[in-house]
Each structure stands twice: as structure tokens, then as C-alpha cells.
Amino acid sequence: MCQNHGVAYIKPGVVEVQSIEYPKLALGDRKCEHGVILQIVSTNICGSDQHMVRGRTTAPAGLVLGHEITGLVIEAGRDVEFIKVGDLVSVPFNIACGRCRNCKAGQTGICLNVNPSRPGAAYGYVDMGGWVGGQAEYVLVPYADFNLLKFPDKDQAMAKIRDLTLLSDIFPTGYHGAVTAGVGPGSIVYVAGAGPVGLACAASCHLLGAAVVIVGDMIPERLEQAKSFGCEIVDLRKDTPLADQIAAIVGVPEVDCAVDCVGFEARGHGSDAGVERPATVLNAIMSVTRAGGALGIPGLYVTGDPGASDAAAKEGSLSIRIGLGWAKSHSFYTGQCPVMKYHRQLMNAILYDKIQIAKAVNVEVISLDKAPKGYQDFDKGAAKKFVIDPHGMIPN
Ligand SMILES: NC(=O)c1ccc[n+]([C@@H]2O[C@H](COP(=O)([O-])OP(=O)(O)OC[C@H]3O[C@@H](n4cnc5c(N)ncnc54)[C@H](O)[C@@H]3O)[C@@H](O)[C@H]2O)c1
Ligand SMILES: [Zn+2]
Ligand SMILES: [Zn+2]
Asked: Domain Alcohol dehydrogenase-like C-terminal spans what residues (predicted)?
């Protein structure tokens, strides 16, 4: 029981499954009697992990990865009142205290009490408070009563675990991107990026009633995946400009709203598709979104990027054409998705069959041993969302 194994970042391009400490109800000297220990049922690999694993952040060697966690409560601290041992729960990737002004306002992605160095924390992430990651067998979840979402029926939940596992991050994140971009019935939307977040966003746009969802990427398999559930697609390797490709689909070279599901490792368009151009997506969504539209930006931008191609980008300064966005009165919504704002409604959308989110992002379940291979395949652009099953609990 007191053994634990987890996926650790070793150096750029390398992760390893290691023996790690069994979690305590504490983070260093900080007591966490408000926390629980989870036996992890599923834990997903994310594009956000890839930024670290590609050496594009200041993540230290040995950092245990994993912020997309679903698990079974096996121990509860003295101060946990409502969550019980035996509950099957989804963990929002944001760690939040439930007590600070931001948490009280529902802004759980920028909690003020869980990370001494800046607002906001997450499991297994650089600069995010030092909380141990959950691509492991067991993990500590602090402030359990506030953070956790309990599934109403365990058997029903296990039958839909491939979908429910996405509630810890990418489903709410994609949905948040759509909501903040103002997607609603009849919207025409451009979603940049057909990775798991982009696909989850596109499926969320459909859930919100969008009329046309256009997904752009440069990986053909990922674009095919978007097509498989009714999206229109644009291949950004083509020389035809994005606006013209959009016009070929909807008759005009603009959309009502757009979502950046790519972030700072964005590549250029056309002949630049093989080259990193970190501001490409931000500039592209400003140029194709109608005046007065909103831009959802869940794609991640960093304050420090050792792998950036120029000195400004190394500090997170990008060449954004803000004058264009200003002239068009665009609204911009950035930052971590406050998962808790959405996870209960989205859980019900899954449980009552209003969405097939696992199918949309093409979930593939793998064992903990296979995590390093999962990272490699995901890095190569596999049109899959890898879900680690550390205890072999997920039914076929
Ligand atoms: N805000 C949040 O709370 C939150 C949560 C989860 C993930 N994220 C971020 O969302 C982003 C996407 O995550 P993911 O798991 O889907 O990652 P991913 O790396 O699998 O997907 C990114 C996709 O963008 C494509 N791409 C590159 N340049 C492009 C361009 N110019 N236009 C269109 N597509 C382009 C890539 O080919 C790739 O398919 C990452 O930056 C991740 O860190 C943010
Ligand atoms: Zn994630
Ligand atoms: Zn807080």
C-alpha cells in the first residue's frame, strides 16, 4: 500500500516511470488536514505537460508530472467534512483554497493561497506551487471539500470513465474557450489547433449550438479527427490564406468568434508551417474575427521560455498586432480555465449522453509503464488523447 510510482520529467524529450514517495496529508511543512489521498483511476497526458517535456519551461529534473486526475478517495484528513473514503471523484487541475477573494469570485485558476510565488497552482507543474503530480498511483488533493467533484454513481461513472476523465481539464478548458469567445446558437467559430484541447473546444461549440465550427491545424490526422464529428477544417500548410479558406466554407472571410487552442509553440502558416512563430495564432484570430467579436485564449503563453528563438520571446514578449484587435474592439480572455465553473454541468452532459467527448478527442487508455511511449507518440502529433490507467481499473 505504501508504494507509489509516477512519471517524472528527466530532461528535454525524456520522462521516466520512477518509484516516488507515497503521499502524506502535507506539502513539506504545510499541513493538509483539509486534503485526501486518492488512488488514481485515470490520469491524462496533456499538451501543457509537453511544453515542460520539450524543455520549453524552467521545469526542474525530477518533477513528477500530471494534473488531469480522477480517483478513488482512500484516506481523508481530519478537516474534510463532506467527501468520504470510497467516493469516486474528478479533480480540477487548478488547486484552489476556496477561501481567498479570487476563489470566492469563482476564479479558481488564480487562487491566492496555494502558490507562494504567484496566483494559481496545479499538480505536477512548473511554477505552480510544488504540488506533486498525479501521473502516478496515488496523489494528495488539498482542500478536498472545495475542489473535488463526486460522481453520483460509481458503477455508472466507471462505465463512462473515458469521458469523465476529461472533466479534470480539457473538456472544461475547451468549453471555457468557447464560452469566453461568446459561442452560442448559430455562431460561426474558428478553432485554432486540433490537439485534444482544440477538439474538446470544437465539440463544446457544437454543444453550445454553433452553426459552423471550423478547425485549423497542420496535422492531417488531427484534422480528420475534427471532421469525424462534423467540423469543417482548414489545412494551414496550404498557401491559401486562412481568411480565403474560411471564405470558401462560409462565403465571407471572417467568423463571429475564435479560440486559440495552440499557445506559444504555434507554427506559422503556409510555407512557414514547419517553423515556430509564437504570435501566429493570436494575430490570425484577430485578423479573421469580425469587429466586436471575442477571442478565447486557453492556449498557454509563458513568462519564461528557455527554448524561444529570440530574446523577447524568452520572456514571453511576442509580436502581437494589438492595434488590429483594438481597431476591431475585440475582447480577449486568457489564463487557466477555472474548471470548477463548468465541471458539474459537463459531467451531466456526459452522464445524460448529450456529448461524446472521449470519441471526439479519440481517447486511448494506456498503462503507467507505457506513459513514456504515450509522451513520444503525442509529441509526434498522434490524433489521440492518452489516458493512463495506473491500477488497471478501466474496463475495456
Ligand atoms: N488554459 C488552460 O487552462 C489550459 C488547459 C489545458 C491546456 N492548455 C493549453 O492548450 C494548448 C493546447 O493543448 P493540447 O493538449 O491540445 O496541445 P497539442 O500540442 O496537442 O495541440 C496543439 C495543436 O496546435 C497545432 N498548431 C500549431 N501551430 C498552429 C497554428 N498556427 N494554427 C493552428 N494550429 C496550430 C499543432 O499542430 C497541434 O496539433 C496548449 O498550449 C496547452 O498548454 C491550456
Ligand atoms: Zn491538462
Ligand atoms: Zn483561493
From this structure: 196-263
Cα(84) to centroid(ligand 1), Å: 36
| Cβ atoms of residues 329 and 104 within 8 Å | no
pLDDT in tens, 38-78: 999 999 999 999 999 999 999 999 999 999 999 999 999 99
* Rg, Å, the chain Cα set: 20
Q: Does 339 sit in the ligand 1 pocket, CB within 6 Å?
A: no
Q: Is the separation of the CB atoms in 301 and 318 below 8 Å?
A: yes
Name the residue with the closest Cα to ligand 1, atom 14: 47
Domains annotated for the chain, with CATH where assigned, are 5-169+338-388 (3.90.180.10), 174-334 (3.40.50.720)
48 ligand 1 Cβ < 6 A: yes
Taking CA atoms only, the protein residue closest to ligand 1 atom 27 is: 266
Among the bound ligands, the one closest to the CA of 134 = 2
Q: Answer whether residue 1 shows pLDDT above 70.
A: no
Angle at which helices 196-207 and 170-180 pack, to 10 degrees? Answer: 60
